[in-house]
Amino acid sequence: MTMLKASALIVALAAAFVLGLALRPYIVHHAVTNESAATVPLRPAPATATAHPAKSATETLAARAAAVTVTPALETREKPLLKTGADMKLASKGFLTGEQFAAVAHAANNTDIPFVLLKDRVLNQHMTLAAAIHASRPALPADIEANRARSEAQSDVLATVRGVL
To answer: In which region does residue 112 sit, left (phi positive, over 0), alpha (psi from -120 to 50) or beta (all else)?
Structure first.
């Protein structure tokens, strides 16, 4: 290979790398970047005693999904996100809701942070999911990744409530 071809190849690779870095936020992140959404707790809010108007079927389904504990259907749905051979009963132990378990599993998968590390920080150190991601990988946009994981988790929980695997 001549020196000119080698130089052209190196410049083309460098340009492709820089272009990839510049376009990554537009390709990878689909979550809302609203900072107030990052503070949404993983637990559902307690019900109030006030009268509510009739709920639609979607609202009723979403309310049932928020209260779902970790079910076998949800464990089956989240299994591909964890390491091969992971014990799902052990992985899901300690989580208050199925949505919380699924959010941590998705965050671990999306950010390449070990699931057990995120689980420990969320459950034992009482960190928010965004804080746990930031503590593990400070260079990542933790709020965006946490919102992304939460929305993926909500989708998984709703699918299991509906009976879709």
So the answer is: left
Task: Give the whole-angstrom CA distance, residue 87 versus residue 136.
Answer: 23
Read off the pLDDT of residues 71-91 as tens digits, 9 standing for 90 and up: 788 778 888 888 888 888 888
What would the two tokens of residue 4 be?
A: 């000119």
In which region does residue 87 sit, left (phi positive, over 0), alpha (psi from -120 to 50) or beta (all else)?
A: beta
Q: Give the angle 24-153-46 at the CA atoms, nearest 5°.
A: 130
3-state helix, strand, coil in the chain (%, to 5): 65, 0, 35
pTM for this prediction: 0.58
Nearest to 66 by CA among 164, 155, 163: 155
